[in-house]
Each structure stands twice: as C-alpha cells, then as structure tokens.
Amino acid sequence: MKVQLVQIAHARSGDKADWVDFGLFAWNEAGYRILAREVSAKRVQAHFAPWLPGQVDCWPLPNILAIKLVLRGALQGGGARNLRLDNLGKSMAAALLRMEVELSPAEWAELRDAPRVGWWPGE
Fold first, then answer.
1. Is the pTM of this model over 0.90?
2. Domain boundaries in the chain?
C-alpha cells in the first residue's frame, strides 16, 4: 500500500542562501524503519525534480528516529532572489510530507498502533 510521509513523520525545516535543510522525524520506531528504507537522497531528488536542479544529501539519525536532508540549489539562488512564491523551507517540508512510500498492511498496522514517541499535549 502507498502512504504519504505525513502519516509516518513530521518535518522541521530551515533555509539558508540556496539550500533547504529538513529534519524528517518519525512518530515512532516502526515509522523510522520505513523512513530508513524508503527515504533516500535519490527518491527525494525525484520528488522535487521540477524545482530542484541541485543535489540532495541524506543522513540517517537513528538515535532520534530522524533523517536529515539538505537540498542544494533548491531556492533559485536564494529566497530573496527568485520569483517563486512561498518557496522557503516550511513550504518545501510540507511538500516533502506528501511524498508516498510503500509499506505492507502489517507495517501499516504496527505503525498505526505503536504509541508516538515524545510529548504531545492531550495524548
């Protein structure tokens, strides 16, 4: 089955000059296993191909259930230099969370039923 990353993780982002920097954080260990298998520099480059002429760097961070991604050349020379509206890191993080990954029904059940790691009010 195909699932969007937003069902598995949340993202934090930043932008400097012509780079976008993402932290993709799994909601739990089951989600991290899927991220580690499915989210690669090549897949992220393909997902952003219409906007991204530069390379993507990817680092797994298993101790915090995260993947760090840096998209080089993502901002057409920098946030203040291009004509694209709302192109900064936060918008691109939302676009990343729309990327689809493959998982089995058993993986989906484990991911869905496992408690989230961290602290969220009301949960």
1. no
2. 2-107
